Amino acid sequence: MATLASLHRRIAEIMPDIAGLATEISLAIHSHPELSLHEFRAAELLKDTLENEGLQVESPLAGLATGFRAVSGDGSHPIVAYLLEYDALPEIGHACGHNLIAAGGLAAAIALHRLGPDRPGTVWVVGTPGEEADGGKITELEAGVFDTVDAALMFHPGDRTVPFRHATALIDLFVQFHGVSAHAAGSPQQGRNALAAMIQFFVAIDGLRQHIPETARIHGIIRHGGAAPNVVPDFTEAHFLVRALTAEAVKALLIRVKQCAEGAAMASGTTVSFEDRPLYAERKNNHALANRVADYLREAGEVVQEPLLRGGTGSSDIGNVSLRIPTIHPYLGIVPEGTPGHSHAMRDAAGSPGAQHKMLRMASALAHAGVDFLGDPGFRDEVVEEFRISGADLPV
Ligand SMILES: [Zn+2]
Ligand SMILES: [Zn+2]
User: Fold this and answer.
1) Backbone angles phi, psi at 242, to 5 degrees
2) Of 22, 265, 348, 383, which alpha carbon lies 20 to 30 A from 185's?
3) Sheet holding 151-153: strands in order across?
């Protein structure tokens, strides 16, 4: 078996050979944004590339048409999994930069694959679709996809490079009011107004906001508000996101949000129904592994800031994975500090040459950290022991 040092040397030699391919894939995905669970072109491109490299590809995965797993190695432990996201946002496109996540994770895994039989352990590439709306990782997790994985690695573009940050737990809630339609002028007394219920619901949520933890967030939109002003609306629907520090706190808050809707239904003589999606959990970053990636990033010239454990955050289904196995989710700065995510600026940056260059830098750091995890038992023990004794990262 090759020494650790020689594996690192070879990674450094291999990475430049992959740069063109990874950049091409990143830009191809960026220029054809596809929505959550509909990332067919992106998934095909990633799977074809992995197959061409000689990895064994399995798809669909956990019942997800755009999910997949590719395996390099004989299946022996340790197993590291590089997680790829490739979904975009409605209307604005790749404003979360998932094209960089996909191509960067792919490049890191291909580099480890090209080490050949000298490399210990097994490398997986897991295509995890639907991060923005449907929690593909949660579906995969619940189907047992990650049961035998020893560590999960991915990164996310952002406005600064940090080894880790906290993330809130979140649930998607759809609230539907059902009323009775009637002529809004001729016979309003026969109607029961589902829009009146919706307005009451929003007012009640505004009242609730005053009395929830300051770390919680409740925000929503009306998806259906009625069909015509002269028809009493018999159906309205809102889509809300309910966030709090932990999954348990979200569950508690969700009860109160639903009570607001039930009260509004009662007041308006309508009925209410709910649909929710999988709950995105809080994040437990593995600091040992994340800091190792940060070390390699610094060596490559990246300015890495201190971990961020305060301020508003998003939420991701990586949280659920991170509570089950050692996981990292560092951020790579591709826009000036303070630039919001899900913005036009973020979208344009995700397709820029500068971001591709940074993505390759991150891919290399993830590959080197993967080599350490696979080939250095002492480091692996440190990662595993931290996972055993630590909890999720919460804001300070
Ligand atoms: Zn994202
Ligand atoms: Zn996003």
Assistant:
1) -115, 120
2) 265
3) 56-58, 68-72, 122-127, 79-84, 151-153, 327-328
- In the predicted model, residues of the chain with pLDDT beneath 50 are none
CA angle, 340 then 100 then 66, to 5°: 110
Domains for the chain: give ranges and CATH numbers: 4-167+282-389 (3.40.630.10), 169-276 (3.30.70.360)
CB-facing half-sphere around the CA of 222: CA atoms within 13 A: 16
Provide the token pair at 391. Answer: 């909890």
CA of 62 to the centre of ligand 1 (A): 21
Task: Name the residue type at position 250.
Answer: V
What are the tokens at 312? 């508003």
Cα–Cα distance, 126 to 67 (Å, whole number): 7
**Closest ligand relative to 86 C-alpha:** 1
Question: 242 C-alpha vs ligand 1 centroid, how far in Å?
Answer: 18
The pLDDT score that the predictor gives to residue 1 is 66
Q: How far is the CA of 380 from the centre of ligand 2 (A)?
A: 30
Residue type, 382: E
Instruction: Give strand pairing partners of 220.
Output: 240
Q: What pLDDT, on a 0 to 100 scale, did the predictor assign at position 309? A: 83
